[in-house]
Amino acid sequence: MTDRTLTDADVQAIVDKLKSELVADFYGDLGRGVWAFCKKALIGLILVLAVYGMASSKVPFINVTEVKP
Questions:
Q1: What pLDDT score does 59 carry?
Q2: CB of 44 closer than 8 Å to CB of 51
Q3: pLDDT tens digits along 14-26
Q4: Which residue, 47, 46, 28, 24, is CA-closest to 36?
Q5: Cα(14)–Cα(6) distance, rounded to whole angstroms?
């Protein structure tokens, strides 16, 4: 079996490659997390507005107090 040794340039190249992959993975995950949060916040806002609209009965084409025989 032959002994392999890494030069300083080899080690630096490996470290640089790992660092760039870690940074890309981190910011990719961060971006996906931010978009997921924005989607959830938007869905929550839509639900809150829908509940508010139902509770305040300000829908123009439905009159809750009017009773038709």
A1: 55
A2: no
A3: 999 999 999 999 9
A4: 28
A5: 10
